[in-house]
């Protein structure tokens, strides 16, 4: 899952990003609304965690722009105000969810994951395919009933492949969804991660390489 965190309190923004990365999400961070608009114009995000009171461009305007562009991106709006009227106003702007500060990180993570499941084709919270069961909320993977221990990036790649439901996913798409924008696109990190993931999942192999196209399960 690819997430953009937009928050002008840098310590909070960086802490949220670090926590979400530990949950096997690819996370970019910006600290003002202008930078947020620039990022959403370049990258495809599943979820934007958006502070409402931002410098340069207000969070409300960022939310409006995402809605106007017709992006499938889901918006979780944050605010220091917990008033019902503020929550209603945020939702009327087009936000998909609303979370007042201060918040529990576990709740933020659960809300981000729930928004990430709201794709054009709704997916169940636990993904199952080819004898593999993946639970994003518990960060657990089982193959034929046996638990498989995965590193965060391995988990993220497997989740992207599982969500594709048999469709081919290119290396570029995996890089987009499982790594943040600081990753060198010319590295072989995707190939190496897929190789390690195959080994950990065991025999017979379930990740198929489609020459010239990518990978699928």
UniProtKB/TrEMBL annotation:
<dbReference type="InterPro" id="IPR001867">
    <property type="entry name" value="OmpR/PhoB-type_DNA-bd"/>
</dbReference>
<feature type="modified residue" description="4-aspartylphosphate">
    <location>
        <position position="51"/>
    </location>
</feature>
<feature type="domain" description="OmpR/PhoB-type">
    <location>
        <begin position="124"/>
        <end position="217"/>
    </location>
</feature>
<keyword id="KW-0238">DNA-binding</keyword>
<dbReference type="InterPro" id="IPR036388">
    <property type="entry name" value="WH-like_DNA-bd_sf"/>
</dbReference>
<dbReference type="InterPro" id="IPR039420">
    <property type="entry name" value="WalR-like"/>
</dbReference>
<dbReference type="InterPro" id="IPR011006">
    <property type="entry name" value="CheY-like_superfamily"/>
</dbReference>
<dbReference type="InterPro" id="IPR001789">
    <property type="entry name" value="Sig_transdc_resp-reg_receiver"/>
</dbReference>
<feature type="domain" description="Response regulatory">
    <location>
        <begin position="2"/>
        <end position="116"/>
    </location>
</feature>
<protein>
    <submittedName>
        <fullName>Response regulator transcription factor</fullName>
    </submittedName>
</protein>
<dbReference type="Pfam" id="PF00072">
    <property type="entry name" value="Response_reg"/>
</dbReference>
<feature type="DNA-binding region" description="OmpR/PhoB-type">
    <location>
        <begin position="124"/>
        <end position="217"/>
    </location>
</feature>
<dbReference type="Pfam" id="PF00486">
    <property type="entry name" value="Trans_reg_C"/>
</dbReference>
<keyword id="KW-0597">Phosphoprotein</keyword>
